Amino acid sequence: MKIWLLLGLLLIHEALEDVTGQHPPKNKRPKEPGENRIKPTNKKVKPKIPKIKDRDSADPTPKTQSIMTQMMDKGRFQKPAATLSLMAGQTLELRCKGNKIGWSYPAYLDTFKDTRLSVKQHERYGQLTLVNSTAADTEKGELFVPSPSHFDVVYLNPDRQAVVPCRVTVLSAKVTLHREFPAKEIPANGTDIVYDLKRGFVYLQPHSGHQGVVYCKAEAGGKSQISVKYQLLYAEVPRGPPSTTISASSNKVKGGDDLSVLCTVLGEPDVEVEFRWTYPGQKDERPVTIQDSWRLIHRGLGHTTRISQSVLSIEDFETIDAGYYICTAQNLQGQTTVATTVESS
């Protein structure tokens, strides 16, 4: 009885497959043991087009890396947008790469010594933190990003771009550049001078004809404002390692006399120079005096050069002080070492 019941169920199952069209094709051969069970197919697959990264883009404009980042939640950082919108009470933390960072922010935060603002300088970045932000933290009355002084100097170097940093707080503002004397507007023609919202007016190929006092003017929402003034000075010395010379007050010194050795660098007006000395009595801790100084000199036709000097002085010259005096001058582009010999007479 059980066998007939089983055969009946099988017949019913085959009948249902015939009705629904699910009956397997008769020409399908049974698979051999171990045969691959993946059915080959001629189905066309749409090829995946790889995403093109920014650096592979046809856009010839070079991508510059931002030195400023914004601290987000859970320790994430991202490049801040040109305009940030915060909820009241939210904390703002910005970081800027560098070991000598200066920040600009609404002046009242300093005037009233607001404890919500914290500015710190770390070894590799500067950090600005504003907690419990309010609507008052937006400086609506300023069209230009505030400058720390009322008169700035911009050096024009023949081998690199120069920037007049007129940046606006309203992105839709119309910004123009003006010369104070003779009074006229300086057009940003896109070839010699361009305007960059994040930098200001950029002189692409500075030359001595660009010298003078300039200022910027911004117009937005029926309001106009004048920026601080900028003195444009042409720098005669090109970029590179320091151009260094060394000289002694005398190369033959008697015992008991005084000695001074002068190390001099002529360089760009805005490039700092650091000096290091090696001298004969250094290992024996011979007392010496080292004094560094610098000043700007004008060499005609508006050319400006920075002269940096370091003077090593010794009182009561002794035999131990005879030998090589070596001065090493270093700037951001490299270093130069010079030496002179002093004998005991």
What does this structure look like?
The protein has 345 residues and is mainly beta. Helix content is 7%, strand content 39%. The strands form 4 sheets. Strands 6, 8, 9, 12, 13, 14, 15, 17, 19 and 20 form a 10-stranded mixed β-sheet that branches. The longest helix is centred in the N-terminal third of the chain and has 19 residues, at 2-20.
Q: What oligomerization state is this entry in? A: single chain
Q: Structural class per helix/strand content?
A: mainly beta
Order of helices and strands: HEEEHEEEEEEEEEEEEEEEEEEE
Unreliable residue stretches: 1-13, 18-28, 31-64
Rg computed from alpha carbons, rounded to a whole number of angstroms: 37 Å
Give the count of helical stretches: 2
Residue fraction in strands:
35-45%
Termini separation comes to 135 Å
Tell how many strands the DSSP assignment holds: 22
User: What is the global morphology?
Assistant: elongated
Portion in helices:
under 10%
Mean pLDDT: 77
For the largest beta-sheet, the strand count, sense and barrel status come to: 10 strands, mixed
